[in-house]
Automatic annotation (TrEMBL):
Keyword set, alphabetical order: Ligase
Record protein name field: Phenylacetate-CoA ligase
UniProt GO molecular function: ligase activity
Keyword Ligase tagged: yes
Domain of life from the UniProt record: Bacteria
Species this protein is from: Algoriphagus faecimaris
Length: 432
């Protein structure tokens, strides 16, 4: 079975991502470099992408010129640091000017990602960049003896996979406990036998946590499992406690974003190593926010990009016990996975993302919103635009599909976008 999946993986990768194998080999070779060697490689690649962006991206050419930075003439890290930060709004609004000409690439993939405000960023990712990103994940797997062709359980939204149907059921019951119990009585036995074959569990950490809660005491045998990987959300200590108990593994952090790629991957010794081959990381001293330059994104450069997360970096002198010398992100402090509390149930804050994403796709309405919870069973959704009857119906109708015991109050015209830092779609004011 696993040989078949390996064959499938190789066949698919050769067609879709022919450069993945070279990238993976390169990554395996460079992971053992010394700290100084990694720094050098990192800065050389930074120079390379800056030169490329200066030559081919109208947006960056202009930006660099405005501060007198010409990577061909006066390259230095000091000069580089004169470039103003790139914001997500730049990536969205200056999208065309940021893109480099498509003729420069054999193949590009169309990518779409939703921001916290419901605004959608789209761009083209060239084949090498896409393959590098997959190779970086593959390398992370390799640290745990796992492979990309291993059986996985995903907690995303819409990817198709061997576990698509299973996963969709999971999505359902993680947002609705009642359906969960129906599911349990009918199909849990089958689910249990499937789970016993899974080697990798990955996705939103709050959902991995929910699954663990569900499986607690069920005596599912997870002895095939090699890796439990959490992305996109903060992993709380109480998640780890139950993950270890149920899966026999802690949740390993993969830190990245669609536009920046894999920024860091946690090693078996528990430290998040920066992906030095793929990103140049700085920290904004004003707000401790991470600033990322993607070193692989030639089709859509993001240079000195303010991702919106706060991080804590380990001192340069710190060395991880695993032997790899890549610098360490101690913690991503700015991502919050708080729950929305109904009268009887709780819901992941991601539910809001699905509600507004559905509205966008079904009704082509981009709605800037921020939800606040001050009281259990009640949710205030702040909306920037004037609230009409039509808009109210649209939001309430979509919300009802997910929330069964929450009263929703829509409030008009709050200028929540003026806040500094990352715009969060949900803020809980409850103490728990
Ligand atoms: Zn390590």
């Amino acid at each position: 079975m696993s040989r078949f999946h390996k064959w499938l993986f190789f066949r698919g990768a050769k067609r879709r991502n022919p450069s993945i194998f070279n990238h993976y080999e390169d990554l395996k070779r460079t992971e053992n470099l010394s700290f100084e060697e990694l720094k050098l490689l990192n800065e050389n690649r930074l120079k390379e992408i800056c030169k490329f962006a200066f030559k081919h991206s109208l947006f960056y050419k202009e930006r660099f010129k405005n501060v007198g930075f010409d990577p061909d003439e006066n390259w230095s890290i000091e000069e580089f640091k004169k470039i103003p930060f790139t914001q997500k709004s730049d990536l969205i609004r200056q999208n065309e000017e940021i893109h480099t000409p498509k003729e420069l690439f054999k193949k590009r993939f169309f990518v779409e990602t939703s921001g916290t405000s419901g605004e959608i960023l789209t761009f083209f990712r060239d084949e090498s960049w896409d393959s590098f990103n997959r190779a970086a994940i593959w390398r992370g797997y390799s640290w745990f003896g796992a492979n990309p062709w291993d059986r996985k359980l995903y907690f995303w939204g819409y990817n198709s996979d061997f576990f698509k149907r299973l996963k969709l059921s999971m999505m359902d019951f993680t947002v609705n406990r009642f359906r969960l119990f129906d599911y349990e009585s009918k199909k849990l036995k089958r689910l249990e036998s499937k789970l016993g074959k899974v080697k990798i569990i990955e996705g939103y950490s709050s959902m991995i946590y929910e699954l663990a809660l569900l499986m607690e005491g069920k005596e599912v045998n997870f002895n095939q499992l090699k890796l439990v990987k959490g992305t996109s959300e903060k992993v709380f200590p109480h998640y780890q406690e139950i993950a270890k108990k149920v899966y026999g593994h802690k949740i390993v952090n993969e830190y990245g974003s669609t536009e920046s790629g894999i920024i860091a991957f946690e090693c078996p010794d528990g430290n998040m190593h920066i992906n030095m081959e793929g990103v140049y990381v700085e920290q904004d001293p004003d707000d401790l926010g991470i600033v990322v330059t993607n070193l692989q994104s030639f089709s859509f450069p993001s240079i000195r990009y303010k991702l919106g997360d706060q991080i804590q970096l380990a001192p340069d002198s710190f060395r991880c016990s695993c032997g790899m010398q890549g610098p360490i992100i101690v913690e991503v402090t700015g991502r919050i996975g708080k729950k929305i509390l109904g009268k009887h149930q709780s819901y992941p804050s991601l539910t809001l993302y699905y509600i507004f994403k559905n509205i966008y796709f079904n009704s082509q309405r981009k709605i800037d919103f921020q939800a606040h919870q001050f009281e259990k069973g009640k949710l205030e959704i702040w909306i920037k635009e004037p609230i009409t009857e039509d808009l109210t119906n649209l939001i309430l109708k979509e919300s009802k599909k997910y929330f069964s015991d929450i009263d929703i109050l829509l409030l008009e015209n709050h200028d929540f976008r003026q806040q500094s830092g990352k715009l969060r779609d949900f803020i809980s004011h409850l103490p728990f």
